[in-house]
Structure formats: structure tokens, C-alpha cells
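COMPLEX REQUEST
Ligand: flavin-adenine dinucleotide
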Amino acid sequence: MSNKILIVGAGPGGMATAIRLTAAGYHVEMYEAADRVGGRMRGLSVGPYAFDTGPTILQVPQVYEDLFATAGLRFSDYVTLTRLDPNTRIRFWDDTKVDLTSNIPAFKAQLAQFDPSLPEAFERWYVEHLRKDVIGYGPYLGSPVRPPLDYLRPNEVLAALPFRPWETLYQHFARFFNDERLVYALGYQAKYLGMHPTACSSVFSLVTFLEFHYGIWHPQGGFRALAQGMARAAEDLGVVFHLNRPVEQIIVEKGQARGIILADGERVMADAVVVNADFGHAVQHLLPEHARGPYSDRWLARKEFSCSTFMLYLGVDRRWEDLPHHQLYLSQNIRRSDPLWAKSAVLDEDDPSFYVCNPTIVDPANAPAGHSTLFVLVPIPNLRYPIDWAAKRESYRARILRQMAKLGYEDVEKHIVAEHHYTAETWRDEHHTHLGAVFNLIHSWSQLGPLRPHIRHPGTRGLYWIGGAVHPGSGLMTIMEAARSAVHFIGEDIPAPQRRPLVAG
Ligand SMILES: Cc1cc2nc3c(=O)[nH]c(=O)nc-3n(C[C@H](O)[C@H](O)[C@H](O)COP(=O)(O)OP(=O)(O)OC[C@H]3O[C@@H](n4cnc5c(N)ncnc54)[C@H](O)[C@@H]3O)c2cc1C
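STATUS: Structure written out below.
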């Protein structure tokens, strides 16, 4: 066996897996459809303005440091991170605001302005989460998924019960905080999972805690630079990248993945194939029908997928020095928890919640002097709930530009000199994302842990999945953990010939 492994897609999940596999001694080649690496975080340029396309929030830098260190590399040799303060400013429907910050005394002082009992409530919540981190991160988030019954080990169940994991994120925060604004401010991390806090499991309050505890960071040069840094590290380790090489089909013979067929008809053979392309897209378009296993069209139709996002990427001829890097507006409509809203099935044209990233202040290289870029994200329904985007696009753009004044971006339209938009259809057509659901399968109890697709494809040897569909789920931090698990499962099936010697550090 040559231990050659092909990876379909050079998104963050694919590249993290490549780094770990190469460090473990495998020969890895990556086939990427786009002209550059990074997937949803590959970025785009409009004239002299450079934008991040997807992620803007980097949590827990240790997961990247650990990834690079596993391969004998130093993360800081490839990517420079800047810590942000505040982490995020949240502005509420009643025009009050709170700055989420890792400066805990400063945060508690703000809470006291809301209600004198809140600093103490926060302290209780924080101390509980110091324990939840120990009990939850290692065995669940940071470990390879186990068979369902393995999660019923009495000692683990007993340890988890005090955290009431059956609660939703909303119920969880409402138990601690008697002010609905804070319940939503602290539960907004459900957005990362494309969910409403009333539908998202409370196990994800750990993400809120991790942001307080480890802060939020920005890679200099943007998340495009993080993608490029990961690619450079992978290349330094010997990973071979093939860009502009869309994969048309995965070759499966006699229950074994044998390689791939590229769009130009070339066949490349290997010992195993790891698919980083979006799960829903790939099972429908890249797997031969006989190898789909349980993931039929009916299976996909039964599953719940996340919301999509409407994106405005704006190059503007001024800077907003006084506005923070991350800002979120929570409209009163977020308080409507009827099922359609909780399922993100409604396009809010009345008073949409939205998020703006103002990266140029800490990272001036992305725009000409005195100018800046703005990244605007609005959660919208995925394409299971059809919206005529050709008809809606312009009016929705205008609605959001007016809405931006609520976060301090007054008269932004007058300052726009370059722009680009995405709708759910762009995510489907240009990023090959099933239903444009950018945060993948939702993270409800029925789609968590062993109930998500497994990294090992059922019924086909040598075929693996990496990305937001598998345990632990969507988001960069979680996908970095999934990459560790992918190498664990591959190592069990195809032992590595010999571990690469570490090259540094
Ligand atoms: C708007 C937005 C905001 C987000 N914000 C955050 C955030 O702040 N923080 C955070 O942690 N996460 C965030 N995320 C989530 C994060 O971007 C994703 O979880 C992550 O990018 C998924 O990585 P991945 O490697 O699984 O897949 P992807 O990034 O989708 O990469 C898949 C790759 O496969 C390639 N591919 C597809 N089909 C083929 C084919 N047939 N042949 C070859 N290649 C193919 C694609 O071109 C792509 O490069 C955000 C996502 C979006 C969209």
C-alpha cells in the first residue's frame, strides 16, 4: 500500500485533515474546484477592496496551535492573530447595548447597569462553565464520536446531568439571567450554528463561555490569510494541491473507495478518499448511486438544515474608527419563537437582525488609505423555503443598508464605492452548498454527536467525511476538532507507514 489519500476540497476542514495526515506519514493530494483554497473562507476582491467571505470570528486559538504543533510547525510562523476587545457589541431592539468582553470586571459593571443582581448571576454562570468546559469539551467536543450507547456511561451521564443538557440555549440563559436582552445576547452564538436560541441545544453555551475565556481573535490579512497560512503549512509538509480541479465522481468498487474522476475525465487512484465538499451536495452529486448508503434523497429531505445568509460586501470611502470590529443588531423579531422563526424559515423584511464586521480598523491593508471594507451578514431562510431572490435582491439590499444606521453606520449608501452580494443561491451555486445552508445540518438533539453523519462513510471502506456535517459540527473550531477525529479513524483503518519526523518547534 502506498498510503496515498485524496482530499476532495481545500476548505479549512480539508486542509486541517491534510496537515494531520501528512504529519502522521500519509501522502496527501488535495483536489479543489475553485482557483484558491479556503472554501467558505476563501475571500473575494472587488478592485482594491479585499473581503472575507465567511468566517470573521476566530475562537480558541489553541486548536490551531495544536494542529500546527502536531506537525512540528509553529502556527505563529504562518498566521498572526490579533485579540479583539470588545469581543462583540450587541445592540438591542430598544437601542440599549452591551459589549461582550473577556475583561470580566468591565462586563460585570455593564451588567450592573441592567440589573444589580446580574453580576452575581454571571459569576455563577461562569463558574459553572469552568466545570462544563472540563466535563464537556474533552469527552464530547474534542473526542472522536462514539456509538450512541457509549454515551450512556453512568459516570459521564451523572457528570453531565447538573448542566441540564436537555434545555435549549434560551432556557439555559433564562435560568440565570432575568433580562431577556441578556438571554439573547449570550445565546447569539446559536447564529454560528445557523439556529435560533429556542431551537439550539444548551450544550453550545460552552461556545459562549469559550469566547469569554479565550477571547475572540482576528487573523491579520483576514480569514483569507488563515486559509493561505494553512495551505502554506500543508505544502511545507509535502501536501500536493491541485486547484481548479473539480471532482466529478468518487470511484467506489466492491465497497471500497478507489479514487476520483475529475471533470476533465482524468482518473486518480488512491487508498482512501476524504470528502471535504459540502455533505449534502457531495452525497447527491459526487457519490455513485450504489454507494450513497443511508444518505438517500429521502434521508436528506428528512434532515433539518441551517439557515442561509444574505451577504453585503461593501468597499466604502470612509472609516468608522469608533465602531467595534464585531457588531450585532438583535431586533425585537428575534423574540418571536413560533416554529417558523425558530426554524429560520421566514425572511424578515420588517426589522431583520444582522451582523456587521468592520475589519479595516485593526487590519488596514484590505482597503485604500482612508477607506474601509464592511462585511454584512443577515440570516435568511435556506432554499427549502423558496424566495425569489432575483426579484427580492435589490429591495433587500436597500432594506439592510437602511438598517445599518442602527449600528452606527449612518448614510452608508452614500459612501459605497465597491460592492458584492450573496444570496442563498450564491452559496448553493458558487460554493456548492446544499440548500445554501451554510452552517450545514442543524445542531438539534436529533442531529448531534452519533446522530450526525459519521466520518467513516457507512458501507464503503476508505471513504471519509470532514466538515460541518460530522461531529462535532459547523464552525472552524469544531471542524479543527473533527479533523483530529478523521485522522484517528483513518489511522485505525489504514495504518500509517511511518510518522514523519517533526520539522520544527
Ligand atoms: C457567512 C458565514 C459566516 C461564518 N462565520 C463563521 C465564524 O465567524 N466563525 C466560524 O468558526 N465559522 C464561521 N462560519 C462557518 C465556517 O465557514 C464553516 O464551518 C467552514 O468554512 C466549513 O469548512 P469546511 O472545510 O467544512 O467546508 P468549506 O469551507 O465549504 O470547503 C469545502 C471546499 O470543497 C470544495 N469543493 C466542493 N465541491 C468540490 C468538488 N466537486 N471538487 C473539488 N472541490 C470541491 C469547495 O470549493 C470548498 O473549497 C461561517 C460561514 C459562513 C458561510
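REMARKS: The chain has a mean pLDDT of 95. Residues 8-14, 31-34, 39-41, 54-57, 192, 246-247, 276-278, 286, 309, 377, 431-432, 438, 467-468, 474-477, 479 surround flavin-adenine dinucleotide (CB under 6 Å).
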